[in-house]
Design a protein that fits this description.
alpha+beta; Alpha-Beta Plaits; five-stranded mixed sheet; two-stranded antiparallel sheet; 2 helices; 42% strand; elongated
Length: 118
């Protein structure tokens, strides 16, 4: 269900995919994140998504003018998870609110894996 905003000229509908794309791109700007994760339904394995599929690692729930965002991420090894998650939350919340005008109620970060570089 798209988010809907009403002004004096009419309605503005923002599709969930637009919000998911903004959230995915915002998360990827954060230090320590390797990428977004997508769960394969058949075997329960999480895979690293390419840049054009970032919105598959994001779930958006809209309720009138409030948004809840779930991010499934893969982080870099050796970085404090809590600090990276807080940075992701702040950046996603700031960008979604500024670009869409919607209120972000909550951003949930689910760390699906750690990538070890050789």
């Amino acid at each position: 269900m798209p988010a809907r905003d009403k002004n004096q000229y009419g309605y503005i509908d923002i599709d969930d995919n637009v919000i998911a794309t903004i959230a995915g791109l915002s998360a990827m700007e954060s230090y320590g994140i390797v990428g977004m994760a997508s769960k394969k339904a058949t075997d329960g394995i999480f895979e690293l998504l390419k840049k054009e599929n970032l919105s598959k690692g994001v779930k958006v729930y809209t309720d009138s003018n409030e948004v809840v965002i779930d991010l499934h991420v893969i982080l870099q090894y050796g970085i404090r998870i809590s600090v990276v998650a807080e940075n992701i939350i702040e950046k996603v919340k700031f960008n979604v609110e500024n670009l869409t005008g919607l209120k972000v109620r909550r951003v949930n970060v689910y760390v699906q894996g750690i990538r070890v570089e050789k």
